[in-house]
Amino acid sequence: MPSPDHRQQQFGIARAGVRFARRYAPAMARRGWGRILFVSSESALNIPKEMIHYGMSKTAQLAVTRGLAMELACTGVTVNALLPGGATDTGMIPAAFPEERRRTLLRPEEVVRIFLDSVRRGWASGLFLTTGIPGRPRKVMDDLIEVLELLR
């Protein structure tokens, strides 16, 4: 079980986004344009048993994302969350992970590129883009692009 200090740190990270939004979202809405992007984690949806506190804080970020997206609807401000993990080759992949499987993972830059492109274009708000989808990574990226094209 993590220490109380560690749990507080995790929840502090989630609260930081709320403070940011309270500070900047009103001005964005007055201008009629803005982009808020939270970086959550696949652990928000698939909470690891050894990291319940972390998963909970990331789930809280998704609640904030969805709530702000609804609150700021029709203002020109979009609010989305990126959920790295799953089929993405991040620094959290163990060194013992088989190399032949590592080659099938998405590169973080691929995920970020398509997601940020959709955010910049304002195609969606309240969207959670996760890479934790089983299957071939290239097909996952093609499917994500297809979904974003439909959302436009």
Number of helices: 5
Strand percent estimate? 5-15%
Q: Give helix % range.
A: 40-55%
> pLDDT below 50 for ≥5 consecutive residues: which ranges?
none
Largest sheet: 3 strands, parallel
Average pLDDT = 75
Counted beta strands: 3
Can you write the helix and strand succession as a string? HEHEHHEH
Structural class: mainly alpha
Description of the molecule:
The chain has helices at 4-31, 52-71, 99-102, 108-120, 137-151; strands at 34-39, 77-83, 128-130. With 152 residues, the chain is mainly α. Helix 2 (52-71) links the parallel strand 1 and strand 2. It is flat. The termini are far apart.
Layout of helices and strands:
Blueprint: H1 4-31, E1 34-39, H2 52-71, E2 77-83, H3 99-102, H4 108-120, E3 128-130, H5 137-151
Parallel strand pairs: 1-2, 2-3
Helix pairs in contact: 1-2, 4-5
